[in-house]
Amino acid sequence: MFIEVVKSKIHRVTVTEANLNYIGSITIDEDLLDAANLIPNEKVAIVNNNNGERFETYIIKGERGSGVICLNGAAARKAQPGDIIIIMSYAMMDFEEAKTFKPAVVFPDTATNKLI
Hints:
about 10% helix
């Protein structure tokens, strides 16, 4: 049996930009991607702590060290600069493997979106 579990999580990061006139996605600082074991084009779920919105999109790699968290396209309607969000990805794995799997979880500084 396979189950879906949290693989990666960026907990409480601040939206820096919202670009409605873009194809769609979320741009994330490459330092955060590396720390959270995330890759470009990976599907992510996003929770907005400010307004309760929950949605899915995919990742675009942002400039390393920039602190960028930019919602693009329709996602720009779900969060505004200054909102605090949580970004999560999930993976399918065998039930027994899932019992011992440890997700990558990062807690960046919400003022700068840099790793603490």
